[in-house]
Amino acid sequence: MPSDAQFDIRSLDQLVALLDGGNFLNEVMTAVADLQKTLIDYRDDHGGKPKGDVTLKLRFQLNKSGDVTIGGEYEVKRPKAPPAAGVAYVDEDGKLSLHSPMLTRMTIRDVTPPEREIRPAAE
């Protein structure tokens, strides 16, 4: 089946731009930009090296007349926020408490410096 080279689809962006008159490509690119912002926000809030994915799926169906119907969908996976965390202590009865049992074992000593006479350096 001969083809006129000027009408050949030569790149993925040309192919994806066919879907919904280019609106699908715009949606995907907006989703990619939103993911990048999410990664930056995640890094600022939680640190680390956050990861995300954009999965693009294209379906092709060859029709009886020889034309191809192309369908597309995409999925964005954003990094999950770390689980909430907190700290409490367990007392002798097995109850949770905000009071550290280490404080009851710690002895507190007075570290106030003794009063001394302050003299000028020139004397």
Can you describe what's shown?
The protein is an alpha+beta fold. It has a domain at 10-77. It has 3 helices and 4 strands; from the N terminus they run ααββββα. The protein has helices at residues 12-17, 23-46, 101-105; strands spanning 53-62, 68-77, 89-90, 96-97. It has a two-stranded antiparallel ribbon with strand order 1-2. The chain has a two-stranded antiparallel sheet with strand order 3-4. The longest helix is centred in the N-terminal third of the chain and has 24 residues, at 23-46. The radius of gyration is 33 Å and the shape is elongated. The model has no long low-confidence stretch (mean pLDDT 89).
SSE inventory with pairings:
Blueprint: H1 12-17, H2 23-46, E1 53-62, E2 68-77, E3 89-90, E4 96-97, H3 101-105
